[in-house]
Write a structure and sequence with these properties.
The protein is mainly alpha-helical. The chain folds into two domains: 83 residues, DNA polymerase, domain 1; 174 residues, Intergrase catalytic core (hpI Integrase, Chain A). It is built from 13 helices and three strands, in the order H-H-H-H-H-H-H-E-E-E-H-H-H-H-H-H. Strand 1 and strand 2 form a beta hairpin. The radius of gyration is 22 Å and the shape is elongated. The termini are far apart.
Protein backbone atom coordinates (compact mmCIF):
# COMPACT_ATOMS: atom_id res chain seq x y z
CA UNK A 1 0.00 0.00 0.00
CA UNK A 2 1.37 3.41 -0.89
CA UNK A 3 1.50 6.23 1.63
CA UNK A 4 -1.41 8.27 0.23
CA UNK A 5 -3.70 5.24 0.36
CA UNK A 6 -2.66 4.59 3.95
CA UNK A 7 -3.34 8.21 4.97
CA UNK A 8 -6.78 8.06 3.34
CA UNK A 9 -7.55 4.84 5.20
CA UNK A 10 -6.37 6.36 8.47
CA UNK A 11 -8.56 9.43 7.86
CA UNK A 12 -11.60 7.21 7.35
CA UNK A 13 -10.79 5.46 10.62
CA UNK A 14 -10.64 8.81 12.43
CA UNK A 15 -14.04 9.73 11.00
CA UNK A 16 -15.53 6.40 12.05
CA UNK A 17 -14.17 6.93 15.56
CA UNK A 18 -15.99 10.27 15.79
CA UNK A 19 -12.91 12.49 15.63
CA UNK A 20 -13.65 16.03 14.53
CA UNK A 21 -12.93 17.30 11.02
CA UNK A 22 -10.21 19.65 12.26
CA UNK A 23 -8.29 16.72 13.76
CA UNK A 24 -8.57 14.83 10.49
CA UNK A 25 -7.26 17.84 8.54
CA UNK A 26 -4.41 18.46 11.00
CA UNK A 27 -3.30 14.85 10.97
CA UNK A 28 -3.46 14.74 7.18
CA UNK A 29 -1.26 17.85 6.94
CA UNK A 30 1.27 16.50 9.44
CA UNK A 31 1.44 13.08 7.82
CA UNK A 32 2.08 14.72 4.44
CA UNK A 33 5.19 16.32 5.96
CA UNK A 34 6.31 12.94 7.26
CA UNK A 35 5.76 11.43 3.80
CA UNK A 36 7.83 14.15 2.09
CA UNK A 37 10.63 13.71 4.62
CA UNK A 38 10.74 9.97 3.89
CA UNK A 39 10.67 10.54 0.11
CA UNK A 40 13.66 12.84 0.32
CA UNK A 41 15.60 10.01 1.94
CA UNK A 42 14.36 7.28 -0.39
CA UNK A 43 12.55 5.54 2.49
CA UNK A 44 9.14 3.88 2.52
CA UNK A 45 6.65 4.48 5.31
CA UNK A 46 6.22 0.76 6.01
CA UNK A 47 9.94 0.36 6.63
CA UNK A 48 10.49 3.47 8.74
CA UNK A 49 12.71 2.91 11.77
CA UNK A 50 12.67 4.26 15.31
CA UNK A 51 15.76 6.34 14.52
CA UNK A 52 14.13 7.89 11.44
CA UNK A 53 11.07 8.88 13.43
CA UNK A 54 13.24 10.43 16.13
CA UNK A 55 15.39 12.29 13.54
CA UNK A 56 12.25 13.65 11.87
CA UNK A 57 10.80 14.82 15.20
CA UNK A 58 14.08 16.50 16.17
CA UNK A 59 14.30 18.32 12.83
CA UNK A 60 10.66 19.34 13.07
CA UNK A 61 11.17 20.69 16.60
CA UNK A 62 13.89 23.09 15.43
CA UNK A 63 11.35 25.24 13.56
CA UNK A 64 8.11 24.56 15.47
CA UNK A 65 6.71 25.09 18.94
CA UNK A 66 6.59 22.39 21.60
CA UNK A 67 2.85 22.21 21.09
CA UNK A 68 3.19 21.50 17.38
CA UNK A 69 6.01 19.03 17.99
CA UNK A 70 3.94 17.16 20.55
CA UNK A 71 1.03 17.05 18.11
CA UNK A 72 3.04 15.53 15.28
CA UNK A 73 4.36 12.89 17.67
CA UNK A 74 0.81 12.05 18.73
CA UNK A 75 -0.23 11.94 15.08
CA UNK A 76 2.53 9.51 14.09
CA UNK A 77 1.83 7.23 17.03
CA UNK A 78 -1.87 7.11 16.19
CA UNK A 79 -1.16 6.50 12.51
CA UNK A 80 1.21 3.62 13.14
CA UNK A 81 -1.03 2.05 15.78
CA UNK A 82 -3.75 2.00 13.14
CA UNK A 83 -1.30 0.56 10.59
CA UNK A 84 -0.30 -2.23 12.99
CA UNK A 85 -3.93 -3.11 13.67
CA UNK A 86 -4.58 -3.25 9.92
CA UNK A 87 -1.41 -5.34 9.45
CA UNK A 88 0.13 -2.85 7.06
CA UNK A 89 3.28 -2.88 9.20
CA UNK A 90 4.51 -5.58 11.61
CA UNK A 91 5.36 -3.13 14.38
CA UNK A 92 5.28 0.59 15.09
CA UNK A 93 8.46 2.65 14.78
CA UNK A 94 6.95 5.09 17.31
CA UNK A 95 6.78 2.62 20.21
CA UNK A 96 9.66 4.25 22.06
CA UNK A 97 8.94 7.80 20.97
CA UNK A 98 9.19 10.45 23.66
CA UNK A 99 7.47 13.65 22.69
CA UNK A 100 7.99 16.99 24.38
CA UNK A 101 5.07 18.23 26.43
CA UNK A 102 2.73 20.76 24.87
CA UNK A 103 2.89 24.39 25.77
CA UNK A 104 0.10 25.33 28.15
CA UNK A 105 -0.75 29.00 27.66
CA UNK A 106 -3.07 30.58 30.17
CA UNK A 107 -6.72 30.75 29.05
CA UNK A 108 -7.58 34.10 27.50
CA UNK A 109 -10.65 34.71 29.60
CA UNK A 110 -12.41 38.05 29.32
CA UNK A 111 -12.75 40.16 32.49
CA UNK A 112 -16.20 40.03 34.06
CA UNK A 113 -16.69 43.70 33.22
CA UNK A 114 -16.13 42.95 29.54
CA UNK A 115 -18.72 40.17 29.67
CA UNK A 116 -21.24 42.54 31.27
CA UNK A 117 -20.53 45.07 28.51
CA UNK A 118 -21.09 42.39 25.87
CA UNK A 119 -24.38 41.25 27.40
CA UNK A 120 -25.62 44.84 27.63
CA UNK A 121 -24.80 45.60 23.99
CA UNK A 122 -26.56 42.43 22.84
CA UNK A 123 -29.79 43.92 24.19
CA UNK A 124 -29.33 47.22 22.33
CA UNK A 125 -30.89 46.27 19.01
CA UNK A 126 -30.79 49.26 16.63
CA UNK A 127 -34.05 50.68 15.40
CA UNK A 128 -35.11 50.58 11.78
CA UNK A 129 -34.06 46.99 11.06
CA UNK A 130 -36.23 45.01 8.67
CA UNK A 131 -37.74 41.70 9.75
CA UNK A 132 -34.87 39.55 8.45
CA UNK A 133 -32.24 41.71 10.13
CA UNK A 134 -34.15 41.69 13.40
CA UNK A 135 -34.38 37.90 13.33
CA UNK A 136 -30.68 37.66 12.56
CA UNK A 137 -29.80 40.00 15.43
CA UNK A 138 -31.94 37.96 17.82
CA UNK A 139 -30.38 34.70 16.61
CA UNK A 140 -26.88 36.11 17.11
CA UNK A 141 -27.83 37.43 20.52
CA UNK A 142 -28.99 34.01 21.71
CA UNK A 143 -25.90 32.29 20.29
CA UNK A 144 -23.53 34.60 22.16
CA UNK A 145 -25.53 34.34 25.38
CA UNK A 146 -25.44 30.54 25.09
CA UNK A 147 -21.65 30.60 24.99
CA UNK A 148 -21.52 32.92 28.00
CA UNK A 149 -23.87 30.79 30.11
CA UNK A 150 -23.02 27.22 29.02
CA UNK A 151 -19.32 27.14 28.12
CA UNK A 152 -19.99 24.94 25.10
CA UNK A 153 -17.44 24.37 22.36
CA UNK A 154 -17.95 26.06 19.00
CA UNK A 155 -18.70 22.80 17.16
CA UNK A 156 -21.03 21.62 19.93
CA UNK A 157 -23.26 24.67 19.73
CA UNK A 158 -23.24 24.68 15.93
CA UNK A 159 -24.75 21.19 15.74
CA UNK A 160 -27.52 21.73 18.30
CA UNK A 161 -31.07 20.95 17.21
CA UNK A 162 -34.29 21.97 18.87
CA UNK A 163 -34.75 18.35 19.91
CA UNK A 164 -31.63 18.70 22.08
CA UNK A 165 -33.50 21.11 24.36
CA UNK A 166 -35.49 19.75 27.29
CA UNK A 167 -37.03 22.86 28.73
CA UNK A 168 -39.09 20.96 31.31
CA UNK A 169 -36.00 19.18 32.64
CA UNK A 170 -33.94 22.36 32.26
CA UNK A 171 -31.11 20.81 30.29
CA UNK A 172 -29.38 20.82 26.90
CA UNK A 173 -28.16 17.60 25.33
CA UNK A 174 -24.66 18.17 23.92
CA UNK A 175 -22.65 15.81 21.76
CA UNK A 176 -19.00 16.51 22.50
CA UNK A 177 -15.66 15.28 21.24
CA UNK A 178 -15.52 11.59 20.43
CA UNK A 179 -19.34 11.53 20.29
CA UNK A 180 -19.48 11.76 24.09
CA UNK A 181 -22.91 12.87 25.25
CA UNK A 182 -23.46 15.17 28.21
CA UNK A 183 -26.26 17.34 29.56
CA UNK A 184 -25.72 20.98 30.53
CA UNK A 185 -28.24 22.59 32.90
CA UNK A 186 -29.99 25.61 31.40
CA UNK A 187 -29.05 28.80 33.23
CA UNK A 188 -32.12 30.94 34.09
CA UNK A 189 -30.61 33.83 32.11
CA UNK A 190 -31.11 31.92 28.83
CA UNK A 191 -34.15 29.80 29.75
CA UNK A 192 -36.57 32.23 28.12
CA UNK A 193 -34.46 32.57 24.98
CA UNK A 194 -34.20 28.81 24.53
CA UNK A 195 -37.81 28.19 25.48
CA UNK A 196 -38.90 30.39 22.59
CA UNK A 197 -36.91 28.19 20.20
CA UNK A 198 -38.00 24.79 21.49
CA UNK A 199 -41.46 24.61 19.94
CA UNK A 200 -40.38 23.70 16.39
CA UNK A 201 -37.91 21.16 15.00
CA UNK A 202 -34.66 21.37 13.04
CA UNK A 203 -31.42 23.29 13.67
CA UNK A 204 -31.47 25.40 16.79
CA UNK A 205 -29.57 28.17 15.00
CA UNK A 206 -30.42 28.11 11.29
CA UNK A 207 -28.55 29.95 8.57
CA UNK A 208 -30.28 32.28 6.11
CA UNK A 209 -30.81 29.28 3.83
CA UNK A 210 -32.56 27.32 6.57
CA UNK A 211 -29.84 24.74 7.26
CA UNK A 212 -27.74 24.69 10.44
CA UNK A 213 -25.38 27.59 10.92
CA UNK A 214 -21.92 26.04 10.59
CA UNK A 215 -19.02 26.46 13.00
CA UNK A 216 -17.31 28.58 10.34
CA UNK A 217 -20.49 30.66 10.01
CA UNK A 218 -20.57 31.27 13.77
CA UNK A 219 -16.90 32.29 13.76
CA UNK A 220 -17.62 34.72 10.94
CA UNK A 221 -20.63 36.05 12.85
CA UNK A 222 -18.38 36.77 15.84
CA UNK A 223 -15.97 38.65 13.59
CA UNK A 224 -18.62 40.81 11.95
CA UNK A 225 -21.31 41.10 14.60
CA UNK A 226 -19.58 40.84 17.99
CA UNK A 227 -16.21 42.36 17.12
CA UNK A 228 -17.58 44.65 14.40
CA UNK A 229 -21.00 45.93 15.42
CA UNK A 230 -20.80 45.44 19.17
CA UNK A 231 -17.10 46.39 19.39
CA UNK A 232 -16.41 43.72 22.04
CA UNK A 233 -13.87 41.59 20.24
CA UNK A 234 -13.78 37.96 21.38
CA UNK A 235 -14.12 34.42 20.09
CA UNK A 236 -16.44 31.58 21.15
CA UNK A 237 -13.45 29.86 22.75
CA UNK A 238 -12.68 32.93 24.84
CA UNK A 239 -16.24 32.89 26.14
CA UNK A 240 -15.81 29.20 27.02
CA UNK A 241 -12.68 30.10 29.00
CA UNK A 242 -14.49 33.03 30.58
CA UNK A 243 -17.36 30.75 31.65
CA UNK A 244 -14.97 28.31 33.33
CA UNK A 245 -12.78 31.00 34.90
CA UNK A 246 -15.72 32.85 36.42
CA UNK A 247 -17.22 29.67 37.86
CA UNK A 248 -13.88 28.84 39.43
CA UNK A 249 -13.51 32.37 40.79
CA UNK A 250 -16.92 32.05 42.41
CA UNK A 251 -15.86 28.85 44.17
CA UNK A 252 -17.49 26.13 42.06
CA UNK A 253 -15.80 22.74 42.44
CA UNK A 254 -13.25 22.15 39.68
CA UNK A 255 -14.66 18.69 39.00
CA UNK A 256 -18.09 20.18 38.33
CA UNK A 257 -16.56 22.68 35.92
CA UNK A 258 -14.76 19.88 34.09
CA UNK A 259 -18.03 17.99 33.72
CA UNK A 260 -19.83 21.06 32.41
CA UNK A 261 -17.05 21.64 29.87
CA UNK A 262 -17.07 18.00 28.75
CA UNK A 263 -13.35 17.43 29.26
CA UNK A 264 -12.28 13.89 28.39
CA UNK A 265 -10.23 13.42 31.56
CA UNK A 266 -13.29 13.89 33.67
CA UNK A 267 -15.16 11.32 31.58
CA UNK A 268 -12.42 8.87 32.49
CA UNK A 269 -12.54 9.61 36.22
CA UNK A 270 -16.25 10.39 36.64
CA UNK A 271 -16.96 6.85 37.93
CA UNK A 272 -14.87 7.58 40.99
CA UNK A 273 -16.03 11.16 41.45
CA UNK A 274 -19.72 10.26 41.41
CA UNK A 275 -20.93 13.81 40.80
CA UNK A 276 -24.64 14.17 41.36
CA UNK A 277 -26.61 15.91 38.54
CA UNK A 278 -27.93 18.34 41.14
CA UNK A 279 -24.33 19.43 41.76
CA UNK A 280 -24.04 20.36 38.09
CA UNK A 281 -27.21 22.41 38.24
CA UNK A 282 -26.06 24.02 41.47
CA UNK A 283 -22.73 24.87 39.88
CA UNK A 284 -24.15 26.57 36.83
CA UNK A 285 -26.72 28.46 38.90
CA UNK A 286 -23.87 30.15 40.75
CA UNK A 287 -22.76 31.82 37.53
CA UNK A 288 -23.55 35.51 37.93
CA UNK A 289 -22.10 38.19 35.66
CA UNK A 290 -23.89 41.07 37.40
CA UNK A 291 -20.95 41.90 39.64
CA UNK A 292 -23.12 42.02 42.73
Amino acid sequence: MDFDQAVNGFSRALRAAGRCASTERSYGYLLAQWGRWLDQRGAHWTGATDDQVQDFIEEYAQSHSRTSTALIGTCLRSFYRWAVRRRHVPSSPTAGLEVSRRDRPLPRALPAGKIRQLLARLDEMPGGLDTDRRLEWERNRVIVRCYVFTGMRLAELAQLTREDLDIDAGSIRVMGKGRRERFIPIHPAIAGDLGALASASGPLFPSRKGGPLSAAGISEMFRKFVCGQLEVCCTPHQLRHSFASELRRQGVDLRVIQRLLGHAKLDTTAIYLNIDPDDLAGGILRLDWSGR
